[in-house]
Amino acid sequence: MNDRGADLRRVDTWIFDLDNTLYPMGGAVQSQMDERITAYVVRETGLSAEEAYTLQRKYLDEQGTTLAGLMSHHGVDPYHFLEEVHDVSLDSVSPDQALYTALARLPGRRLVFTNASAGHAERVLAKLGYADLFEHVFHLEAADLTPKPQAAAYDALIRLHGVTPRSAAFFEDTERNLAPAAGLGMATVLVGPHAATSTAGFVDYRTDDLTTFLQTAQVGET
């Protein structure tokens, strides 16, 4: 499934989520991070590993990140949490030259908008070899620790980077994170293996192959 030939000629600001969007996070990175988060929750709450995992997923679903729930209900140090849970091996992450070329053809500027930490985003983009393609990374610290899909995170992105929503496109693997972007007037693209099953009205395009989508999209003059 891929929305070929998407009409994105109005777009001059291309905004991408990072994990599971610009690269497939996959089992290795995801499992390491999940395990570290669970261990952190166990230590902070005294719950069993099973109970801790249930709680971390509850906070993620309700507040956008597990960290948001830990901050509001358990008073954790957010920077210590971010440093610890993102200290994972990136051995399974590798560059994709075809995707690099597809990103490079996009006219205008490119931004990363992630709920991950600044350090994690920097490490991943360096490992991928994509850092030179992006003007800025809007990470969790830049959002004052407010995650997607909270409206304040989108407002801060727009304000800090002078984004005009009507001429922006947002690419995400998490459906609910596209809703605020659509409400602001951005074009929305749901990315990933489950995109085809989405029926959300706020999703403009769906693709399980970001490279092909970008290669075939109609874009403005460079």
Description:
The protein is of the alpha/beta class and 222 residues long. The protein folds into 2 domains: 7-23 and 93-219, HAD superfamily/HAD-like (Rossmann fold, 3-Layer(aba) Sandwich); 27-85, DNA polymerase, domain 1 (Orthogonal Bundle), CATH 1.10.150. It has 9 helices and 8 strands. It has helices spanning 26-45, 49-63, 66-74, 78-85, 97-104, 118-128, 151-161, 178-184, 210-216; strands at 7-8, 13-16, 109-113, 136-138, 168-172, 187-191, 205-207, 218-219. A 6-stranded parallel beta sheet has the order 4-3-2-5-6-7, sandwiched between helices. It has a two-stranded parallel sheet with strand order 1-8. Helix 2 crosses helix 3 (66-74) and helix 5 (97-104) packs parallel to helix 9. The chain is globular and about 55 Å long. It starts with 6 loop residues before the first strand and ends with a strand.
What overall geometry do the principal axes of the alpha carbons give? globular
Q: Which class best fits the helix and strand makeup?
A: alpha/beta
Q: How many strand units?
A: 8
The share of residues in helices is: 40-55%
The fraction of residues in strands falls at 5-15%
Number of helices: 9
The CATH superfamily of the largest domain is identified as HAD superfamily/HAD-like
CATH class label of the largest domain: Alpha Beta
Which regions contain 5 or more consecutive residues with pLDDT less than 50?
none
Mean pLDDT: 95
The topology string of helices and strands comes to EEHHHHHEHEHEHEEHE
